[in-house]
Write a structure and sequence with these properties.
Number of domains of chain B: 2
Strand content of chain A: 5-15%
Number of helices of chain B: 11
Helix content of chain A: 10-25%
Largest interface: A-B, 14 and 13 residues
Shape of chain B: globular
CATH topology of one domain in chain A: Alpha-Beta Plaits
CATH architecture of one domain in chain A: 2-Layer Sandwich
Number of helices of chain A: 4
Radius of gyration of chain A: 26 Å
Order of helices and strands of chain A: HEHEEHEEH
Largest sheet of chain B: 2 strands, antiparallel
Structural class of chain B: mainly alpha
Oligomer: heterodimer
Shape of chain A: elongated
Number of strands of chain A: 5
Helix content of chain B: 55-70%
Number of strands of chain B: 2
Strand order of the largest sheet of chain A: 2-3-5
Order of helices and strands of chain B: HHHEEHHHHHHHH
CATH class of one domain in chain A: Alpha Beta
Distance between the termini of chain A: 82 Å
Strand order of the largest sheet of chain B: 1-2
């Protein structure tokens, strides 16, 4: 008898708790009408940024491609007459990209960056393959002042590659022994 | 002969009106359930298709009809195709004995506001309710899937167990009304609804009715997190839709029967009788949704213990007490 009374009390209090929720305002965010403000470091669509002089930052070092856990980044390196490296072509397959942000962490020149844009779903899977002209933007992204080639990695009036103040000699990749 | 044809035409008109209204209301009961349940869980519920999501049932029906109708390999084809129809048809048939209002007069003929006033109306309801077990059990068995089979077995066990307490809980009502006919039972509640005399029977009936229509504290036959979807795991398209429809028609039928047996049927002040019946059915449906939003699913042994060790003895005691009181009053 005691336990039956307990059960009835539990039932009634449960029903009452649910009933008072009927008069609460729903907490659902109505997405397309209301877009929740994102944190600044939210990870979305990937871009390739330029340095303050307006040149491409990417030096085609393949670090992003190497660190990418789903292998969605591919590129081919090339070198300008003054010794500055760049990507002949650069391709990100967003159908595979998981927006983990490892490429941004790996990038030594702050070229590859993730934006907060997440609304780029499409019905055609092939249109997710973004080429370099789709990725390249005309601003510096998050790292406004960083300019790698101001200091090193290029032939200038002061000397050849590796001859600037504090700059190491270029590594010979054909004999990369410890 | 002319009289016979006229009677037949009136029956056809009544049948088509009731079928249309019941199917329409069952569709919108899905909307009401989704909306009300959502508000109980501080969500909005469907609100994309039309204002307040009012076109959602239409969208669902279009989706279900245009979906592929698959039959799994190794299924018992005949039973598999037939089972959803059994569930939906038995649920719809139960509505034919629910009285909707006072008799009306059309061209000098009395037209009763019920499809058929069977003198064994209550027994007919039980018969149909028992038959719908076949839809569940055979549908689960015929789909050649372990989840379907388990759901079907559970459904059969649960519905047979609760059929007993459902039937026993209503015997006092029959004793009070001296009739099995639903029309007579409403007549007998001219002064007071039976819920005042039979609160225990009312409770037992509500619990058993929820178990009969496989609603959430008793939804073991379709338990999502154990059995995928139980007996209708393998069904797709409109065949799944028929199971779904059957469940919601079942809720309305039990709302109607509850209203007729305990709440005075179509009786009520000021408003027309049919409106009162609708209000009562709607309140019962809201209560069922409210319970769905509150209670977790029972374990299988709890389900059986509640049915056999609590509800059936309680119903038997209720019959004894009602009989004793009736004897003493005489």
């Amino acid at each position: 008898m005691e336990s039956a009374w307990e059960a009835v009390k539990a039932l009634v209090s449960g029903l009452w708790t649910v009933l008072i929720h009927l008069f609460r305002k729903p907490i659902t965010e109505q997405y397309p009408e209301y877009k929740r403000p994102l944190p600044v470091r939210a990870r979305g669509r990937i871009i390739l940024t330029r340095d303050p002089d307006g040149e491409e930052r990417c030096v085609s070092c393949f670090l992003c491609s190497a660190v990418c856990p789903v292998n969605c980044i591919s590129m081919e390196g090339a070198e300008r007459p003054d010794g500055r490296r760049y990507a002949a072509w650069f391709r990100i397959n967003f159908a595979r990209c998981i927006l983990c942000g490892f490429c941004e962490e790996a990038c030594p020149t702050s070229a590859i960056q993730l934006t907060t844009d997440y609304e780029f779903s499409k019905t055609d899977i092939l249109s997710f393959v973004y080429e370099k002209e789709n990725l390249l933007v005309n601003h510096q992204g998050k790292d406004k002042d960083y300019n790698f080639y101001k200091y090193s990695g290029v032939t200038s009036n002061y000397g050849d590659k590796g001859e600037h103040v504090g700059e190491q000699k270029p590594v010979d990749i054909k004999s990369n022994m410890p | 002969m002319l009289l016979w044809i006229a009677g037949f035409l009136i029956l056809l008109v009544k049948l088509s009106i009731i079928l249309g209204v019941v199917l329409f209301l069952a569709g919108y009961l899905v909307w009401v359930e989704r909306k009300f349940l959502a508000r109980l869980q501080i969500r909005y519920g469907p609100n994309r298709a039309g204002p307040y999501g009012l076109l959602q049932p239409l969208a669902d029906i279009v989706k279900m009809i245009t979906k592929e109708d698959t039959v799994p390999e190794g299924a018992d084809r005949a039973f598999f195709l037939l089972a959803p129809a059994v569930v939906a048809a038995t649920a719809l048939l139960m509505f034919s004995v629910v009285p909707l209002g006072r008799d009306i007069t059309v061209w000098g003929r009395r037209v009763p506001m019920v499809i058929t006033d069977l003198n064994i109306g209550l027994l007919f309801v039980f018969a149909m309710s028992s038959l719908s077990v076949y839809g569940v059990a055979l549908g689960g068995w015929a789909s050649n899937s372990k989840y379907g089979l388990l759901g079907g077995i559970r459904g059969a066990a649960q519905m047979i167990s609760y059929e007993l307490s459902l039937g026993l809980s209503l015997i006092p009502i029959v004793m009070l009304a001296h009739s099995f006919s639903m029309v007579d039972i409403v007549q007998a509640q001219q002064k007071y609804p039976f819920i005042l005399f039979q609160p225990v029977a009312f409770l037992i009936f509500v619990i058993s009715a929820m178990a009969e229509s496989k609603r959430i504290p008793f939804d073991l036959p379709e338990a999502e997190n154990e059995l995928v979807a139980g007996y209708h795991t393998e069904y797709s398209g409109m065949r799944f839709g028929l199971f779904f429809l059957g469940e919601y028609v079942h809720i309305m039928v039990f709302g109607g029967i509850l209203a007729v047996l305990f709440l005075g049927g179509w009786r009520g002040p000021i408003l027309p009788p049919i409106v009162w019946l609708m209000i009562k059915i709607f309140l019962v449906a809201l209560f069922m949704i409210w319970v769905r939003g509150t209670l977790p699913r029972l374990r299988y042994d709890q389900l059986m213990a509640l049915g056999w060790k609590v509800l059936i003895p309680l119903a038997l005691i209720n019959i004894l007490v009602t009989g004793a009181v009736g004897l003493m009053m005489n």
